[in-house]
Amino acid sequence: MTISNGKTHRRWLRRAGAARLEYGADYNPDQWPREVWDEDVAAMQAAGVTVVSLAIFSWARLEPSEGTYDFAWLDEVMDLLHAGGISVDLATATASPPPWLTRKHPEILPVTREGEILWPGARQHWRPTSPIFREHALGLVRELATRYADHPALVAWHVSNELGCHNVYDYSDDAAVAFRVWLRARYGTIEALNDAWGTAFWSQRYADFEEILPPRLAASHPNPTQQVDFKRFSSDALKDYLIAERDLLRGITPEVPITTNFMVMGETRGMNYADWASEIDFVSNDHYVLPGPQARDELSFSANLTGNIAGGRPWFLMEHSTSAVNWQPVNVAKKPGELARDSLTHVAHGADAVCFFQWRQSKAGAEKYHSAMLPHAGTDSEVFRGVAALGARLKELAVVAGSERTTAPVGIVFDWESWWVSEQDSHPTDRLRYRQEALDWYTALLNVGVRADVVPVGGPLENYRFLIAPVLHVVPAALADRLRAYVADGGHLVTTYFSGIVDENDHAWLGGYPGAFRDLLGIRIEEFGPLLDHESVTLDSGAVGTLWTDRIDVTGDGVEVLATYKTGDQADRPAVTRRSDGTGSASYVSTRLGAEGLTALLPALLGPAGVVSELPEQLRGRVELTIRGEHRFLINRTDEPVELTGVDGASGILEPRGVLVVHEKH
Description:
CATH architecture of the largest domain: Alpha-Beta Barrel
Oligomer: single chain
Number of domains: 3
Number of helices: 17
Strand order of the largest sheet: 5-4-3-2-1-9-8-7-6
Radius of gyration: 26 Å
Number of strands: 25
Helix content: 25-40%
CATH superfamily of the largest domain: Glycosidases
């Protein structure tokens, strides 16, 4: 498999034979008596399961006391699964340290910014920078890799589990030491750090790196560049741990591909997955539907972003749910058809494996009410029948496996650093939500039936005719140059409020906003205009803006005002502008319009780029179109049947929440 940085590593799964869409779940046989294991394998075969992730939380069982290992049960499970034709993505089991380790070494426990220790009793109670934790964890990894290196069931290694889910930000003394090492590598000298951090403010100037701490609870707002550097460091610390396990595994099992499960979903922001992707042999992701009016759009957005983090190449959906989860305020079961639609939406965006948490629903523990492939009700249940039906359908869709995502005409730029910095304290508003703005644009594009890619800021932006960069707040000079060149070469860019404001050190671009984009957009803003919660503004188009307004002065040639404020402090002034530059253009949206307002605005923005929907008019907004290689996925976004007319190769009725896959004949 070729990963996103261009390197060629191992196959995405170590397997002989024809390509197929993999199907399975996390499997936790150590939660059950031995007699249940045979039932499990038989039921897996009935459901079409091809792969399971094994031993994810089994450290305490595998190493019941320090240096004493018990692999007999795992040997038996591995042999049993292999005999049943089921492959194993074997976890390194390091996600949750055993009680004996935290009792002997409580210094591995994470510390919050308030100085509180996160005690054992749940999971991920370890510091990413703890040398003691790493020593013990790598000892277990070495034993596992040596023992199972040649086992025929082993097709991949699964490093830890959801790295950083609960321990991404650790403010301990170990973290402080590692942070200083990271800062020395980044800046070289304390003078360079002082300049980058602007430490002349509030008498923060440092004489030595040893004086620096993580941004722990302080009397007021911590230094903003210190905050963003700590976010960068924290993501890098977890990546460094991932690399440590990976390198050990590669040394012992060089032919076995390695992955770890990302969490590209919702507000999970601490790990810069676009930066991590090149460190593993194939990208994996966990996703759970988040309640709300954009629930399925968010699922599509996250799957889309995951596919582009993977460089358009196949990836592994490691976890999602068959029905209800257990960790939301109200955990609602899925409606008929949603299990399949959720799964196939991920496949449409490049997943070559569809897996769930978990195989058999637990009878005890914190996740006993989380749905599974085999629920408490057993095989005689609607959930299991849906699971088996999905397994059969994935087998029919085997021809899709291995195909890459097809580039869309529109790209939505996604930048972790802009996410981190735009939502820090001491800003014009604390109501801004970076990912929500990006999701609103994605929903609007779905509403008008236009395909879009959610692409990391370091990705191939020049591939898109139309580029949306919502709240692109952090803009180093090189990125500003790149986007100027994109427009000069005929590309069409749109950006929004609070974009182009700071450089990589969180220093404001001077001379007026939007800073790095001021000349490109041909506008100048002297002062931000954030709105209070109860305030809104109306545009002459009838759209309603919230959160933000800007007092825009048009300063450049070729600037067209596409919409004007009708109400508010900026009444009769520009709200949306576009500046033409040869055959390209750069547009600016100065308020939050939400998905509905953006849907109405998009045709005017897309027009100069010549971007139109590939769907018949009657399907736009009702059906999501995704193209993967020679296959078109038509996904019913609604709870109503949709008549498929005017679609080549498709006819009849697309059932509520249904998915049709059409093979393009050439």
